[in-house]
Amino acid sequence: VFVGAMSVISKGVKLGNGVKIFHNVSIEDECEIGDGTVLYSGVRLYRKTKIGRNCILHSGVVAGSDGFGFAPLPDSSYSKVPQLGNVVIEDDVEIGASCTIDRGVSHDTIIGRGTKLDNMVHVGHDTVIGKNCLIAAQVGIAGATTLEDGVTLWGQVGVNKTLRIGAGAVVLGQSGVVSSIDGNITYFGTPAVDAQTKRREFVWIKRIPELWKKMMSE
Questions:
Q1: Does the chain have fewer CB atoms within 10 Å around its N or its C terminus?
Q2: Residues of the chain with pLDDT > 70: what percent?
Q3: Is-catalytic flag, 23?
Q4: Which of 189, 190, 115 is nearest to 151 (CA)?
Q5: Alpha carbon of 92 to those of 55, 122, 124, 137, 211: distances in Å?
Q6: CA distances from 179 to 31, 137, 169, 195, 203 (A)
Q7: Mind giving me the DSSP string for 93-149?
Q8: Would you state the pLDDT for residue 16?
Q9: Does the predicted model carry a pTM greater than 0.70?
């Protein structure tokens, strides 16, 4: 195990063989890190975060911070919802720089084996991401959402809370997923629909001035 300068490892932490922890990493109580995993400078793991084998967490990753859970009160203020779950990152996962992964409220937030996150991705509380998913930069996934195996989300996709994305689905960049969608289809737009349908819509929209001019001339 290699531990760089200025890193803090709290009590009850379990480190596997060949773990590399670079400078200024903070690992709180009872975290677990599997064999061969690498934590680059500035990673922060909150209590009881579990990371599998051969994972890579790039600089600035925060795993296990509280989810965005607040209950409204009669006086229009908010009460913080207790955060009872943790974060579980399975084997062979790579997480890009400055990603944030919230702990679960009612159960664990899970990132499945072989999944890869680009830089600046946010994963909300209680979200379950399946195996071998690809999530590009600046994607935001709201709480209690499920991504089945092999899902691809391209850059700046926004995903609403408490929905399901089917296995093998591909969502093209800057789309908005507002309700559950089926697997093995490529989606685009907000709300996200079959990309082929959306492309046909664009063709017709471009023809509107021509059709309007033709109609007015008759």
A1: C
A2: 100
A3: no
A4: 115
A5: 5, 19, 21, 19, 54
A6: 34, 21, 14, 16, 25
A7: -EE-TT-EEEPPSSS-EEE-TT-EE-TT-EE-TT-EE-TT-EE-TT-EE-TT-EE-T
A8: 98
A9: yes
Phi, psi (degrees; rounded to nearest 5) at 68: -85, 75
Residue pLDDT, tens place only, 45-87: 999 999 999 999 999 999 999 999 899 999 999 999 999 999 9
Tokens of 118: 């680009």
197: which 2 tokens?
Answer: 């349908």
> What parts of the chain have a pLDDT lower than 70?
none
pLDDT of residue 22: 98
Q: What's the pLDDT at 217?
A: 81
Q: Which residues lie below 8 Å from residue 127, measured CB to CB, with a gap of 6+?
A: 102, 109, 110, 141, 142, 143, 144, 145, 146, 147
C-alpha pair distances (Å), 159 with each of 139, 153, 178, 202, 218: 8, 9, 6, 23, 46
Catalytic residue among 23, 58, 107, 125: 125
Predicted confidence at residue 124, as pLDDT, reads 98
Q: Write the DSSP symbol of residue 172.
A: -
Closest CA to 111 of 38, 153, 52, 60: 52
CA distance 54 to 64: 19
CB 165 within 8 A of CB 147: yes
How high is the pLDDT of residue 171?
98
